[in-house]
Amino acid sequence: MIKKRSSGMLAHITSLPSPFGIGDIGPSSYAFIDFLVDCEQSYWQFLPTGPTNGVFDNSPYMSTSAFAGTPLLISPELLLQDGLISQSDLNNKPVFSQYSTEYGEVLRYKDTLLHKAFKQFEPDTCSEYATFVETATWLDEYATFMTLKELCGDTGWFDWPEEFATRKPESLQSILTKHIEKINYFRFEQFEFFRQWRLLRQYASKQHISLIGDLPIYVSYDSVDVWAHQSIFSLDRTTLRPMKVSGVPPDYFSKTGQRWGNPLYDWHNCDASVQNELLNWWSARLSNLFDLVDMTRIDHFRGFVSYWAIPEENDTAIEGEWEKGPGADFFEKIYKKLGKLNIVAEDLGIITPEVEELRDKLGFPGMKVLQFAFDGNRDNSFLPCNYQSPQCIVYTGTHDNDTTVGWYLSEKMDDNNRSLIKKMANRSLHDQNNIHHDLIYLAQSSIAMLCIFPLQDVLGFGSDCKMNSPGVPEGNWRWRCAKEFLTPDVANYMKNSTSIFGRGRPLKEVQPPG
Q: Nearest 5°: CA angle at 298, between 263 and 398?
C-alpha cells in the first residue's frame, strides 16, 4: 500500500548520463538521485537489471539470470576508487555517444576493465567478499553457467554437450576443477555489482528516494534459471525444448500479438517436489530483488490468473490459448515465507474481472496509463476522472509507449482526441506546445497516490527518444539522456508541479540542538 501522495520518475539506469557509453550504479546514479531531490520527487523506477549478454537486442526482459546483476552497470569510477583499475584505464576509453547506448562497444570496454580489476582483487583479504560468496546461494550456479557458455562458444545451454545440458554431476565438478579461475571471475563480477548497489541504495535511502524495480514474470530460455531448474519449466524432457512459450494475443501494440518465446512454468505439475522447488525458486527470486529495491512492479501480472500459451513451433502469437495461472494461493504461500511485499501489479492489456479481483485481494496498486485514456469513451478507466481508488499509480506512459510528445503528434491521434486532452487539462486546443506538461498536470492532480513520469516526458522529447517498440526486434533499449538536459529549469517545473498537488517529499529531520 502507498501511504502518502507522492511522485517519481521512470528512467532506466542505462539511460543516465555518464562518460562510459552507458549509465551505471556509480556517480551517474548518484547524480540522478540528486536531480530527483531537486525535482521534489520521492521515487525512482527503472527496468530489470539482470545481465543481457548482447542477445535479444539487449532487452532487460530477457536476462540470462533472474538473480545476477549486469556487469554493464558496474561503475568504472568506483573500481578506480577501490584501486582495482588505473586512471589511464578511464582516460583511454572509446568515444561514446551521449544519446544512444552502443552495446557492443560498451561491452568490450567494460569487459576489459573488469578483467583488469579482477587481477588486482585480493579475495583473501576481503571479508565482505567471503560473506557474499557464502550467502548468495545462486552464485555458483551462475558462475558455472557463464563459464560453460564461454567454453561452448556462447551457444545456448540446450545446445551444449549432453553431459552439461543435462547437468551430470561429475561433468560439472570437472568444470569447477579445471576452470576455477573463470568461475572466480564471474563470482568477482557479481560481488562488485552487489557491493556497488548496496552503496547506491544507502545513498538513495539517505536522500529519501525509494527505488522501484521491475520483475519480469518470465525468464529467458537460455538462462541459468531454466538450465539449473529444468523440472519447474514446461519442457520436453527428451529434447529439452519448451512445449509452449509465452506471449500475448493481438492487442493495441500488435495485430499478430507478441510471441515472447519464454518457457512457461509447470504450474500444473502434480509432483509435490516440483511444486516445492517452484515455490522455493520464486521465494528466493523475490527475496533477492527486495534486497535491492523498496518496491517492485511485476511485469505481466495477469499471468498469475491466466497466461497466453503459444505452441513453440508457431511464429506468431495468434494461435495461442489461455491457461490457468497459480492465483492467490501462490502469493499466500510466498507471504508465509517472506511476509508482505510492496508489489505493483502491471495490469495492462487484456484484463479480466478475475485479474482485478486478484490484484485487489492482494492489495497491490495497479497502473493507470494516460496514453490509453483518450479513445473517446468517457467511461475509460484510465481517465483520471474515473479512478475508483487512490491505491493506483498513474503514468503518462511506460517504457513500451511512445513518448507523450511523439504520441500526441502521431497519426494515431485525431483532433477529437487532442481536444479532449486539452479540455481535461484546461488548456486551449490551439496551444499545441507542452503537451507533456498537460499530462503531468492531469496525473499530479488525480486521486492516484503515486505518479510516475518517464524521463523523456519530463523533458518533452519526441518519438526518437522512446525506449522500446513492442514487436519490433531491433533498435530498442538504447536511448540515453545527455547531462545538459537535466537543467534547473526542468527541476523547478517539476518541483512546483509536485508541490501544488501535495506530492512533495518528506520534510528533512531536524536534529535537536546540542
A: 105
